[in-house]
Design a protein that fits this description.
Layout: E1 7-22, E2 27-43, E3 47-51, H1 58-65, E4 73-78, E5 81-82, H2 88-94, E6 98-101, H3 105-108, H4 115-126, H5 131-144, H6 161-173, E7 179-183, H7 191-208, E8 211-215, H8 219-225, E9 228-233, E10 236-242, H9 243-248, H10 253-260, H11 267-272, E11 312-316, E12 319-322
Parallel strand pairs: 3-8, 3-9, 6-7, 7-8
Antiparallel strand pairs: 1-2, 1-4, 4-5, 9-10, 10-12, 11-12
Helix pairs in contact: 4-5, 4-6, 5-6, 6-7
Length: 353
């Protein structure tokens, strides 16, 4: 029997609040709660998908996990070490373990540097290798991500979007990291190129034993690449489950609404699927609603939702959610004649084509 895999990443009550200043004296008048008490683990060698609509805090959470921002609270343990408490020098020595692939390859690559210089920059910063050894490593990385070695002295503008993203992936792999945050790595690419980049990430994961936090708003692609999925809304995780459980039996109303918007490849299934349309706008993270963050848009809101923040707990093995509708001991009844949970229509998800 094989030993159980360990948690490589452990995030506990992560908070990242940005101060808001106002008034004549520019005093702090509040906080933008971009990430507000997020907790999750990532098992070594797996991919955790992080999904949600634009502005929910996905990318900020990913950057906070790598401590690209100074945290407002919580703990982030990577390979057993809490990076939230490290000094800047200690954090710098930890950087080779954790890397990031950014969303826009055009913006994340220096246009004045050649491909060899971009990929080799981490080696310049964190190693004392000879020039020949660095060049050999650069060529190895270009081969690994499918780039021609003859292009090493070209500049980023000479490459397509997919090729530029491959350069960014090669740069992230330069120091043999264990954990990589992929911040919407396919969002800026053509649909025809997206599958190539995702397949490359999967191949590299299997080859090098990588662990991913894959941030995306493309639920179809997340279903393909992720082992587990966390759904984020207004700075908090509202549901986390293995990918099959989340897509087949979503528990939270927000997750159900997101999945109802995913187009089905089967026309017959698509026409029969009920579309859940959320009304209203996302509340401001500087002034979230009292109680449940989703209460202002939830189609099944109850009185308790507007008063008490629902507990985030496990409802099935590995399936976590935060919703009062799932509390079997509740005494509140649905508000405004909303149908109880068992009478709600089930969202049928078709199989991948």
């Amino acid at each position: 029997m094989t030993a159980p895999r360990r948690n490589l990443v452990e995030v506990s009550d992560l908070k990242l609040h940005f101060p808001v200043y106002g008034g004549l004296l520019r005093r702090q008048v509040g906080n933008v709660k971009a990430v507000d008490g997020v907790s999750f683990d990532i098992i070594e060698g797996e991919t955790l998908g992080l999904v949600g609509e634009s502005g929910c805090g996905k990318s900020t959470c990913g950057r906070a996990v790598l401590r690209l921002y100074e945290l407002s609270g919580g703990a982030v343990r990577i390979d057993g070490e809490d990076i939230a408490t490290l000094s800047q020098e200690q954090l710098r020595r930890k950087r080779p373990t954790m890397q990031m692939v950014f969303q826009d390859p055009q913006a994340s690559l220096n246009p004045r540097m050649t491909v060899a210089a971009i990929i080799g920059e981490p080696l310049d910063e964190h190693t004392d290798w000879s020039r020949a050894r660095k060049l050999e490593r650069i060529y190895e990385l270009m081969d690994a991500v499918g780039l021609n070695r003859d292009f090493a002295n070209r500049y980023p503008h000479a490459f397509s979007g997919g090729q530029r993203q491959r350069i960014g992936i090669a740069r992230a792999l330069a120091l043999n990291p264990k954990f990589i945050v992929c911040d919407e790595p396919i969002a800026a690419l053509d649909v025809s190129i997206q599958a190539q980049v995702v397949n490359l990430l999967e191949e590299l994961q299997e080859r090098f034993g990588l662990t991913y936090l894959f941030i995306s708003h493309d639920l179809g692609m997340v279903r393909h690449i992720a082992d587990r999925v966390a759904v984020m809304y207004l700075g908090r995780i509202v549901e986390l489950a293995p990918v099959s459980a989340l897509y087949d039996t979503p528990l939270h109303p927000y997750t159900q609404a997101l999945l109802s918007a995913v187009p089905e490849p089967d026309p017959w299934t698509e026409t029969r699927k009920e579309r859940i349309v959320l009304k209203g706008d996302v509340p401001s993270p500087s002034n979230p609603p009292q109680g449940c963050n989703f209460c202002t848009r939830c189609p099944r809101v109850m009185d308790i939702c507007r008063r008490i923040d629902p507990p985030y707990r496990e409802h099935a093995p590995g399936h976590f959610a935060a919703c009062h509708l799932l509390d079997e001991t509740r005494t509140d009844q649905p508000k405004d004649g909303a149908r109880p949970e068992q009478d709600q229509p089930h969202i049928h998800q078709g199989e991948d084509a």
